[in-house]
């Protein structure tokens, strides 16, 4: 099977893909819409895209596609720690203090602000479209003493030397990636990275019934269904019109979730299940899902 | 008094400033953090920045500053319709069909995608840092037949000719701007644009008590306090840790809102009132606040 992902090779999304689908053919796409389009047109069997970062919040373009553009279920989720390293061309590995310019994605540069300020003060930085693109550029430019900020996979893929490890300012940064597919693909729940099952529900409230959101949450609360996320998004029909995306910390069943859906529809809400899927977590950091 | 705003001159923020503070000295800043910093350092008395757009959602950088960086109350809100026009240098006003390149902010180009596809198919576009910057560039380049997509104020300010009005694809696009100040500034509630009062509350849930969000909403619901917005944001302490920003559709009082705060604190929530302030709406479009 073919797995499309937000590329190029050796992005953090690629790390998620290699963890989940080590045997499948991975196909990089340059943008998130390109991934979705390839999935819609059956160029690929699955797509892996970022959904939420612990520091930056939701990836709006992914949410917008899920809600407005595609009708393809989420079949899995992977959380990946975001660890950034400083790397140089092997020819320059003893000269990293003399780096003349640092290349990386704007988010990665921001995430390593303190390190850059302390260790490479005054060194200019240049933004690239991804951390992997920065690594690729540095590999192709051995004649200038340039550094790239990227992940370990990028150092391996592009043959760079990591000269400073874990230079990101905040240690708890993670990104959640989702897997989408039209097909019923079985993900490997026996893996050690498997953490549980969740169900993602999109709910549109009836127009202007005060207290409707409280009623919605009541339908989950009295059944003791734990929510691990709620997010409001504008409906694109004007300010003050929102829909909600709610993650329920359980697998879709035959009784409780259908009961919630029936009750919410009776309250004039529109309800759509975006997927019920296993979630996985890469890395040994302590995992914690806060229940709302 | 000095009012800092997200500039340059003739941005949509500038339109909001002119509506709210026609008599005050307006000072443009190039970025939202620059506006906040100027306010913190008392270079300006008030700051006006965008908070939320009906199509794009919340402006993350504004929310982040409000929550993590500053302790300055919101004292007012203005909602402004987003109307985009195609404008050219007056020398080229009869040649707009021959435009060789269209300049604008990436959001504005996206908002006029259908128009550009239909009327100027194949014409390349160039992104600028704001719609106003596009207008300024076109004014300074009469020798090339270039178009700018910007608002009416930009056409007036930079002396351009509007050749196609209201070219945005979706008619209901609006942006909410907030006014921040350390001072007790009285806004003009007698104006026809005045629509009412709201109170914005930030709530952090106790860690991992399932159903806490439902309890929070109950504290508002049994008092029949109407909510017009709820937004969850990551806490920057890891995925799955969220705080909530809630808009209550009333002025802060001595009984009901203090009662909510006391109850929520008793439930181990952290509560901070970001402001209680009048809101205003520019433009004649029908105004509607959906209650949640």
TrEMBL record, chains A, B:
Keywords linked to the UniProt accession: Amino-acid biosynthesis, Aromatic amino acid biosynthesis, Lyase, Phenylalanine biosynthesis
Site features described as Essential for prephenate dehydratase activity, chain residue numbers: 175
A family per Pfam: PDT
Residue span, ACT domain: 201-278
Gene3D superfamilies in UniProt: 3.30.70.260, Periplasmic binding protein-like II
A GO molecular-function descriptor: prephenate dehydratase activity
Domain Prephenate dehydratase: 2-182
Xref: CDD domains: ACT_CM-PDT (cd04905), PBP2_Sa-PDT_like (cd13633)
GO biological process: L-phenylalanine biosynthetic process
Gene Ontology cellular component annotations, sorted alphabetically: cytoplasm
Record's catalysed reaction(s): prephenate + H(+) = 3-phenylpyruvate + CO2 + H2O
Recorded metabolic or biological pathway in which this protein acts: Amino-acid biosynthesis; L-phenylalanine biosynthesis; phenylpyruvate from prephenate: step 1/1
Primary enzyme class: lyase
Enzyme Commission designation: 4.2.1.51
Domain of life, source organism: Bacteria
Protein name, as recorded: Prephenate dehydratase
Biological classification of the source: Bacteria, Bacillati, Bacillota, Bacilli, Bacillales
């Amino acid at each position: 099977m073919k797995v499309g992902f937000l590329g190029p090779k050796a992005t953090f999304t690629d790390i998620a893909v290699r963890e989940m689908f080590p045997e499948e053919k991975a196909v990089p796409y340059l943008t998130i819409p390109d991934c979705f389009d390839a999935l819609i047109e059956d160029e690929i069997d699955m797509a892996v895209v970022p959904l939420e970062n612990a520091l930056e919040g939701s990836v709006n373009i992914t949410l917008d596609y899920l809600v407005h553009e595609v009708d393809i279920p989420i079949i899995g989720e992977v959380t990946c720690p975001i660890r950034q390293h400083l790397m140089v061309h092997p020819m320059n590995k003893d000269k990293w203090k003399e780096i003349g310019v640092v290349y990386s994605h704007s988010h990665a540069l921001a995430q390593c602000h303190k390190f850059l300020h302390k260790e490479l003060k005054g060194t200019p930085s240049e933004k690239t479209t991804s951390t992997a693109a920065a690594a690729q550029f540095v590999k192709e430019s051995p004649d200038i003493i340039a550094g790239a900020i990227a992940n370990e996979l990028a150092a391996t893929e592009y043959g760079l030397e990591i000269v400073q490890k874990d230079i990101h300012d905040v240690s708890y940064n993670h990104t959640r990636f989702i897997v989408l597919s039209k097909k019923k693909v079985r993900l490997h729940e026996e893996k050690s990275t498997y953490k549980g099952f969740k169900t993602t529900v999109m709910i549109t409230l009836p127009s202007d019934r005060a207290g409707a959101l409280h009623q919605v949450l009541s339908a989950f609360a009295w059944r003791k269904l734990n929510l691990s996320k709620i997010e409001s998004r504008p409906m694109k029909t004007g300010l003050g019109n929102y829909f909600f995306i709610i993650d329920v910390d359980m697998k879709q069943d035959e009784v409780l979730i259908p009961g919630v859906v029936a009750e919410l529809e009776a309250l004039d809400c529109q309800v759509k299940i975006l997927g019920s899927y296993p979630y996985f977590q890469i890395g040994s950091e302590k995992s914690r899902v806060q229940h709302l």
